[in-house]
Design goal:
Blueprint (H helix, E strand, L loop, with lengths): L15 H20 L3 E2 L5 E3 H8 L4 H6 L1 E4 L5 E4 L4 H10 L8 E10 L11 E10 L4 H18 L6 E6 L3 H16 L7 H9 L10 H7 L11 H16 L5 E2 L13 E6 L8 E7 L3 H4 L7 E7 H10 L13 E5 L2 H17 L5 E3 L6 H11 L3 E5 L1 H6 L1 E6 L5 E5 L3 H8 L1
Parallel strand pairs: 1-5, 7-8, 12-13, 12-14
Antiparallel strand pairs: 2-4, 3-4, 5-6, 6-11, 7-9, 9-10, 10-11, 14-15, 15-16
Helix pairs in contact: 1-5, 2-4, 5-9
This protein binds adenosine-5'-triphosphate and magnesium ion.
């Protein structure tokens, strides 16, 4: 026997037992975002490497060490998308959808990052992203957060997640803070973890969310970002908080929340949970007014967020929040014995689907004894088994067995659909 080819580490199959949960989640998200007027956009999984270098930022973890980059047969450098925002901006701008317009967009699909696989962290993972363009005021930041809160509520997750908020100011405020932070931290350089030492030159803001205890101890007396925030960002942040409070959305201000990507400014936020260990963030986002221009478009204010589907599925599973009707169900399983009865079973199956497009009707395929077919029906979890044996066929009827009670009722083949309609 030849050796079996295995999936790539960190890239998971979503098996039939799990896919219904994914569909439930995706369906619920689609319902919520459509309710706020967001429209779906789809863009390719592969883009020019340059898009992410410029869009995500050369000094981010993603571009420094997580991208799947390769040359195609023409020698062009391509990258499997590590996130959706840069592609979304590229696609929308290329189609002329951004300048001087208001857009509310969302997308879903796989993202790729070369990370160490562990629970809640994979190399192919999936995000749902929501982005809005053309609105500079804090009401749209608030709308996005209120939308996400509605989603958690709908999924039964609201009490299991916490909203963390911060403002990181406009670029000039961050530059002034960075200079002061670097001046302070340089004095303690040998006490910082190696990543943070490197970031002192490349991306000092990221040092704030270092998980290293010694680094965190040094940071305790560091200059505070809050002292550098400009007036405009402060007012923006205050208005956002006011709207959230007025809508009953609770939040915690986390002064060291800076987000990993270069393109954020003003509002940043994360929804975190205590149920998933170190992979605590299920949804993250913020304002990125500079990105469209950075990618060659005309200045366009923007704000958005992305959530990790795997982490949400883990959370729903862990908390037992998957509703019964989201799981696969079989309404009727048709058993038939004999060639003529088999023909009748096809007719019956199609009649049932005509009668109610929501019903799942399984026909037993492949013949076999009555007994073995009944076992299969039992195993399928069907609500009803419809039995057409040779006798039943001759009389133009079928036996309808209620699998919950074991009760059996005789029904003419023509009236099975209406009989089932009364039962389910
Ligand atoms: P983390 O700090 O966990 O690495 P991140 O800041 O890199 O997250 P973002 O780029 O903001 O994550 O992506 C948004 C969301 O996508 C995250 O909050 C998370 O839910 C999910 N996500 C990110 N990376 C992964 C991954 N490798 N595997 C699974 N989900 C992920
Ligand atoms: Mg990451």
């Amino acid at each position: 026997m030849s050796r079996k080819v295995q999936a790539i580490r960190g890239m998971n199959d979503i098996l039939p037992g799990q896919s219904s949960v994914w569909q439930y989640l995706e369906r619920t998200v689609a319902e919520v975002v459509h309710g706020y007027g967001y429209q779906q956009i789809r863009f390719p999984i592969v883009e020019n490497t340059d898009l992410f270098k410029r869009g995500v930022g050369e000094t981010t973890d993603i571009v420094e060490k997580e991208m799947y980059t390769f040359n195609d047969r023409n020698g062009e450098s391509l990258t499997l998308r590590p996130e959706g925002t840069a592609s979304c901006v590229r696609a929308a701008d290329q189609a002329g959808l951004l300048f001087n317009q208001i857009q509310r967009l969302w997308y879903t699909g796989p993202m790729f990052r070369y990370e160490r696989p562990q629970k809640g962290r994979y190399r192919q993972f999936h995000q749902i992203g929501v982005e809005s363009f053309g609105m500079a005021t804090p009401d749209i930041d608030a709308e996005l957060i209120i939308l996400s809160a509605r989603l958690w509520k709908k999924l039964g997750l609201l009490e299991h997640v916490e909203l963390q908020l911060n403002t990181i100011g406009v670029a000039s405020a961050r530059e002034a803070f960075k200079a002061s932070l670097v001046a302070y931290l340089s004095e303690f350089k040998d006490q910082l973890d190696t990543d943070s030492q490197r970031r002192l030159d490349t991306n000092p803001l990221r040092i704030l969310d270092s998980k290293d205890e010694r680094t965190q101890a040094v940071l305790r007396n560091a200059p505070s970002l809050d002292d550098f925030i400009d007036e405009e960002s402060r007012l923006h942040f205050e208005r956002l908080q006011r709207i959230l409070t007025n809508n009953g959305v609770a939040f915690t201000i986390n002064p060291s929340l800076v987000r990993g990507l270069d393109y954020y400014g003003k509002t940043v936020f994360e929804w975190v949970t205590t149920h998933l260990g170190a992979q605590a963030t299920v949804c993250a986002g913020g304002r990125y007014d500079g990105l469209v221009e950075q990618l060659g478009g005309k200045t366009t204010p923007a704000v958005g967020f992305a959530m990790g589907i795997e982490r949400l599925v883990l959370l729903l599973d862990e908390l037992n929040l998957i509703p019964e009707d989201a799981k696969v169900k079989v309404d009727a399983f048709i058993v038939s014995v004999g060639d003529e009865a088999e023909l009748a079973s096809f007719t019956l199956a199609e009649q049932l689907k005509d009668a109610n497009s929501q019903w799942t009707v399984l026909r037993h395929c492949g013949g076999g004894s009555f007994k073995s077919q009944m076992k299969k029906s039992d195993k399928s979890g069907a609500r009803f088994t419809l039995i057409i044996g040779e006798d039943e066929y001759a009389k133009g009827i079928c036996q309808v067995k209620d699998m919950n009670t074991g009760e059996q009722t005789e029904c003419s083949l023509a009236s099975v659909a209406s009989y089932l309609s009364q039962q389910v």
